[in-house]
Amino acid sequence: MTAETPWDEWDHILKIDPDKELPDGVTYGDLCATGTDAIEVGGTMGITEEKMEAVVEACAEHDVPLYQEPSSPDVVIDNRALEGYLIPTVFNAGSPFWITGAHKEWVRIDNGLDWDRTATEAYIVMNPDADVATYTEADCDLDADDVAAYAEVAERMFGQEIVYVEYSGMLGDEDIVEAASGAVDDATLFYGGGIHDYDSAYSMAQYADVIVVGDLAHDEGVDAVRETVEAATDA
Ligand SMILES: CC(C)=CCC/C(C)=C/CC/C(C)=C/CC/C(C)=C/COP(=O)(O)OP(=O)(O)O
Ligand SMILES: O=P(O)(O)OC[C@@H](O)CO
Ligand SMILES: [Mg+2]
C-alpha cells in the first residue's frame, strides 16, 4: 500500500453499497465529509463494475481515502482514485471458493495485479441472516473461543492484515468482539454490523480497532453517521 498500513490510524470506515440508494437530499460528497477515516465501496448482491465506478467517481473529488472491497473477481475496477483494494477471505465459509477459489480466479484472469495496493481482510461472518452469510454458506454457529481462534489463525498462519468480525445487518455480541480483540496482535480488528447511533458505535469501538458503518448511511443519512464517527473517536 502507499502508506504501509493506513488503517492502523483509523477509527471509523463508512461502507457504501453501490447497489443501494442514498436518502433524499444526501450526496456522496456529504458522506465523505462526515469525518470518517476512509470509504470502502462494496456490497454482496447486485454489484457490477458500472455501479462500482459510479460511486468511486462520485467520491473521488473529496478528501477521504477510497478503497474498493470486491465481492467477486469480476467487479474489481481499475481506477486511480482508489487508494487500494481490501480483499476479503471468508474464514468460516462453507465453500472453498470464498477462501481461495475466487482469489485464484482473480489472479488468473487479472493481468498485472497491483499487489502494492492490495491488502487482505479475514472475514468471520456472524449473522446467518445476512446476504453475505447465504452467499458464502458461512457457518455462523460460533462461540467466542471459535472466533478468537479464527482471528489468531488468520493473523499467525495466514498473515492477514485485517481481521473483520462481520455482523452485517445486526449489532453483534460484545463478548465475541472482545475475544477477537484479545486474539490479534499485529492485525487490525474491524467490526461491522448494526451500528446505528452513538451508543452502539461506542460499544463496539471499545474492542475493535476500527468500526465499519454501512446501511445507516443509506437508511438515515449524514447526522446519524457523524454520531458514530464521534463515538469511534471517543472510544
Ligand atoms: C478475490 C476477490 C477479488 C473477491 C472475492 C472476495 C470474497 C471472498 C467475497 C465474499 C463475500 C464478501 C465478504 C463480500 C464483502 C462485502 C460485504 C460483506 C458486504 C455486506 O454484505 P451484506 O450486508 O450481507 O449484503 P448487502 O448489504 O449487499 O445486502
Ligand atoms: O450495514 P451494517 O449493518 O452497518 O454493516 C456494516 C458492514 O460490516 C457490512 O459489511
Ligand atoms: Mg449490508
TrEMBL record:
> Which annotated residues bind Mg(2+)?
17, 44
Q: Give the Pfam families listed for this entry.
A: PcrB
Cofactor(s), by name: Mg(2+)
The coiled-coil segments of this chain are: none
**Keywords, A to Z?**
Cytoplasm, Lipid biosynthesis, Lipid metabolism, Magnesium, Metal-binding, Phospholipid biosynthesis, Phospholipid metabolism, Transferase
Q: Show the GO MF annotations.
A: heptaprenylglyceryl phosphate synthase activity; magnesium ion binding; phosphoglycerol geranylgeranyltransferase activity
Among PANTHER family, the record links this protein to:
HEPTAPRENYLGLYCERYL PHOSPHATE SYNTHASE, PTHR40029
Q: Family, per the entry?
A: Belongs to the GGGP/HepGP synthase family. Group I subfamily.
Name the UniProt record assigns to this protein: Geranylgeranylglyceryl phosphate synthase
Protein species of origin: Natrialba magadii (strain ATCC 43099 / DSM 3394 / CCM 3739 / CIP 104546 / IAM 13178 / JCM 8861 / NBRC 102185 / NCIMB 2190 / MS3) (Natronobacterium magadii)
